[in-house]
Design goal:
Layout lengths: L4 E6 L2 E5 L4 E4 L14 H24 L2 E15 L13 E14 L2 H11 L3 H8 L11
Antiparallel strand pairs: 1-2, 2-3, 4-5
Length: about 140
């Protein structure tokens, strides 16, 4: 189980820790922050990109696939459902959309390339975002 703690430091600066590592999130200056760290959506996309990269690397290592380079790019946007090619019929109005570009170089054929595309979609963070999340929230106000 993963556990993260975040503490507001100043303005919109938030220090985040998992107990071992500490990092900072902030908002850009045009949104009132000090731009001392990535914004929350950057962190979300970074988690997805890291998970995809690690999942592909682990799979390639386990299957003996020679990957010489791997890079992942994710972009987040809110788009109108009418402009979304992959939206399901039940969506209306604006939807959250993540677009990916994955670049893999190595010594493998088309069959392996197609398999790697499928594996990229199976990273745990991708599956969590795709399947939806159930929140169990408690808010303490003093």
């Amino acid at each position: 189980m993963a556990s993260i703690t975040a503490e507001l430091i100043s303005g919109f600066q938030v220090d985040i820790t998992n107990g071992t590592h500490t990092w900072r999130a902030d908002e850009p200056t045009d949104l009132g922050g000090d731009d001392t760290g990535p914004n929350p959506y950057d962190l979300l996309l970074g988690s997805l990109a890291a998970c995809t990269s690690i999942t592909l690397s682990m799979y390639a290592k386990r299957k003996g696939i020679n990957i010489t380079s791997l890079s992942v790019e994710y972009r987040y946007d809110r788009v109108h459902v009418d402009d979304c090619e992959n939206c399901e019929e039940h969506h209306t109005g604006l939807v959250d959309q993540i677009t990916s570009q994955i670049f893999i170089d190595g010594d493998f054929d088309e069959e392996v390339r197609q398999r790697l595309i499928g594996i990229a979609k199976r990273c745990p963070v991708h599956k969590t975002l795709e399947n939806g999340i159930v929140f169990d929230e408690t808010v303490w106000a003093g």
